[in-house]
Specification:
4 helices, about 120 residues, mainly alpha
Length: about 120
Amino acid sequence: MKAASETPKSGFDIVKWLLVFVILSLAVVGNYLYELTALEKAIAIVVLVVIAGAVAAQTHKGRTFINFAKESRTEVRKVVWPTRQETMQTTLVVLVATLIMGLLLWGLDAILLRVVSFLTGLGI
């Protein structure tokens, strides 16, 4: 997709992203500078991250992300999930196939080790 065919962004989006950066920077710097309890720090960081998220959601990219998340949630609801029995059977098949391949590779490794030791005369 060409950049010219995308929806034009407003110049105000740059200001919003700068504000998001400042808010998140404030959370990081404030975490180091202020002597608060762990609970107070956690609450302050969560509040600042929520505010930054709300500001970011007002941008073009933020609205696009929110729309994508809503559509993804709708698609996940359409998925037909396997039953417990199907999951257990599939897991068992994978485990057996892995065991068989492991034994085959172990046997092949042992054969190749004997062939190489015979050819080189090292007697490993």
